[in-house]
Amino acid sequence: MQKILYVAHCLLNTASKVAREPREGARQEEELRVAVLKKALERGVQLIQLPCPEFTLYGARRWGHVYEQFDNTFFRTHSRTILAPIIQEMQEYLTHPERVEVLGVIGIDGSPSCGVSYTCRGCWGGELSRRDDLQEVIRTVHLVEQSGVFMEVLQELLREAEIDLPVVGLYAPERERVLSLLDV
């Protein structure tokens, strides 16, 4: 039987992520990303890459965003549009349980779009060049226990399609929970 796992776009393609300087915890996150990919390959799990809503809207040279910037009808509609064929694909695989087992979805915790258990929020936005309080604005950005907008839309679509799959976020402190999804 074939095992399938849907993964956030940047799990397979880190070039799609917002460019940034190395930061605390980045090495642990990369080690977990590699561990997930290695375990999937060792277990023969097929990986299906979700589209990246940020990249498909803003491209590779975008700034980092927060949840509040994506929490709007335009981003949610774009997310629904690019996820529609994914939901149809899942439905097709799920109609063949004798041949295929869909294990779930892995998002990227901390992302304002693909976070599952954690997302990035803050009072971020507007024109940057004329602000004299930029450092104060940057300090408002923080991690909260909540899904990102894209994952919220995905979970809504899964409920609408009556698809019950585990959705977990790639987050280094929860390494074992993420890796357990691949215990097949």
Description:
- By secondary structure, this protein is of the alpha/beta class.
- 42% of the residues lie in helices and 17% in strands.
- It is built from 8 helices and 6 strands, in the order βααβαααββαβαβα.
- The strands form 2 sheets. The protein has a 4-stranded parallel beta sheet, with helices on both faces. A two-stranded antiparallel sheet has the order 4-5.
- α5 packs across α7.
- The longest helix has 22 residues, at 73-94.
- The chain is globular.
- The chain starts with a strand and ends with a helix.
- The model has no long low-confidence stretch (mean pLDDT 89).
* Backbone structural class: alpha/beta
Q: Any low-confidence stretches, pLDDT <50, length ≥5? A: none
Provide the residue-averaged pLDDT: 89
Share of helix, binned: 40-55%
Order of the strands making up the biggest sheet: 2-1-3-6
| Tally of contiguous helical segments | 8
The largest sheet, given as strand count, sense and whether it forms a barrel, is:
4 strands, parallel
Query: Percent of residues in beta strands?
Result: 15-25%
Number of strands: 6
Overall domain count: 1
Q: Radius of gyration over alpha carbons? A: 17 Å
Order of helices and strands: EHHEHHHEEHEHEH
Straight-line distance between termini: 11 Å
The shape is globular
